[in-house]
Specification:
Elements (H helix, E strand, L loop, with lengths): L1 H28 L10 H9 L5 H34 L7 H14 L3 H4 L6 H4 L1 H6 L4 H28 L6 H35 L1
Helix pairs in contact: 1-2, 1-3, 2-3, 2-8, 3-8, 8-9
Length: 206
Amino acid sequence: MIHSVVQWLIESVSALGYPGIVALMFIESSFLPLPSELVMPPAGYLAAQGRMDPLLAVLAGTVGSIGGALFNYWFAVTVGEPFLRRYGKYVLLREHHLDRTEAFFARHGEISTFIGRLLPVVRHLISIPAGMSRMALGRFVAFTALGAAIWCSVLVYIGWFIGRHETALVEGVVKAYSTQAVLYMLPVLAVLVAGYVVWHRRRGAL
């Protein structure tokens, strides 16, 4: 049963091609709960079979993620927080998720739009507090693109690795590898955040 679903996902991504990856990752970065683990690893698996280019798959995933993030950013700027808190549940935007994401943005500042791309739940909602705070669009796109590119690369590599080893691409394997990848990236993220904070404070002192 699981193998059939996985095979269906792989063939679906193959049929949709790079435009399909853009569209699916756009959805993943907006309000709708479409896990990126269901999109990018199959692309990596197809790359291992020579049916897709891994770099183009990562690029397509990154472009889609930026598009979805910009949609959330624009939506937050346009409708504002009161509207989102009152009606967000109708578009699967739970208030406690919004609270969590706002707290994360308040704690880490603008760089959270980069860090958040690598974290569950926060990933597709971090654009909302960025929009509410009117974060500079250029920095927002740059941080989002960097985080999305890293995350898409990790997921494509997982799919490629599994495909090269002729192992069934099952959800449990993908989640295990993606969780491990996040844990490995945490020290690097800590250094990047510390460097950004120091740079930001020195810039403010000038």
